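Case 420 in the screening queue. Each case pairs one protein sequence with one candidate compound; here the compound is guanosine-5'-diphosphate. For every case the pipeline is the same: read the inputs, emit a complex structure as tokens, and attach any notable structural observations.

Predict complex for case 420.
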Amino acid sequence: MVNVVLGGFYGDEGKGKIIDYLAADADITVRYSGGNNAGHTIIVDGVKFAFHLIPSGILNKGTKAVIGNGVVVDPKVLIEEMKVVEENGYSVENLCISNKAHLIMPYHIAMDRLLEELRGNGKIGTTVRGIGPTYCDKYERSGIRVGDLLSAKFEDKVRENVARKNDIFRLYGREEFDAEEIIKEYKGYAEILKPYIMDTVILLHNAISENKKIVCEGAQATLLDIDHGSYPFVTSSSPCVGGVCTGTGIGAKYLNEVYGVVKAYSSRVGEGPYITEQKNEIGDTIRELGHEYGTTTKRPRRCGWLDAVALRYAVMINGLTGIAINHLDTIGKLDKIKLCVAYNYKGDVNMDFSTDQEYIDECEPVYEEFDGNFGDISNVKSRKDLPENAKKYLDRIEELAGAPIKFIGTGAGRENMIVE
Ligand code: GDP
Ligand code: IMO
Ligand code: MG
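Case 420 output:
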């Protein structure tokens, strides 16, 4: 049984929380794309964890936490994260890192920064974690993989890459890198990470043949997908369902449930189109009520209403079998809630989502209004026991999305969730 949890909007929908729930009876959780641009929050017994690289399932004792081949790994960040897990009394012995995952090197981070500066006003607003440049090298076929850390060829690969990158940094008057320093630093990381590096494809397929339960943990989200998102304001990987197959080596026929996570409102970090954004008091109120500040970069998140047109697109692109809606408690604190039910494109009202910026710029969101004031719903355990106002809102979302709601977040804690 292989289930997938992925982002339905622009990220930060609370994927970590849903994965943590599903990990309780999973044998394996596996990250399939992205790197430490992700920030997945889990709150267990009041203790807050923010995972950037380690799959959220690490907190569950018998569950293996796999970093799949589609992930880009900054070993320094990974080792720091392993320490935090251990300092909080959990073990990292279940961590497995694909030998085929690509390494984020210091020059990738410098390149990410340089490219953003060169873009000027057209900047993407990346997390500056070196994600884009690392994927560039992967596809250009000069990347260095985690498995290379243990190979005799590692030193030459670093020297070759550093020489080429320094040509560019020199051109722009930037500080150059010393290959020998990087080799020394990364060899230190290799010593620590060695026991966890393996061919995770074999591990995953052995588990599948033993009918074990695997949960694939998405990072980023549908509208940040390199192909299906709001290009160029996207990340450099495939957070959509297709990324599961390439990023883990699990074939499509093994996938069962595909859950898309959204919030009962919406948010976005970084630049790019966002049709339901509320650049006003409402957006500010949602940001404060939902504590919408980046888990990774601490940037204030842009906030707005839930966009059912975009949600329907996420259902379509990913073949979602279920939806998770978090922060129902947060939106329920407002008196009135709006839901975008269609786009008005020059008088043509429809549900055609497009990531084309020029089209989106011409579209006006069409809203329906709902009553809020849900009261304290944090301990409600069944959808039918929710207040009528909340039920009406959820029913309409489900109708427009075209997929059933399976999880409802009623608070930030592990226990604040309705499972249908
Ligand atoms: P992810 O990147 O998709 O895992 O999401 P983030 O962790 O970046 O952001 C989600 C935020 O919402 C975190 O601070 C979570 O603790 C919080 N959260 C998740 N679900 C709920 C919910 O149902 N209610 C409330 N109040 N907070 C939630
Ligand atoms: P999780 O997994 C929200 C955004 C960045 C920027 C764009 C490209 O926590 O949902 P990158 O550094 O990837 O090249 O930046 O993508 N972005 C995210 N936004 N949540 C994330 O991850 C994100 N990962 C990247 O803000 O707009
Ligand atoms: Mg996040």
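Case 420 observations:
- The chain has a mean pLDDT of 97.
- Residues 7, 11-12, 37-40, 124-127, 129, 131-132, 219-221, 224, 235-236, 269-270, 295 surround 6-O-phosphoryl inosine monophosphate (ligand 2) (CB under 6 Å).
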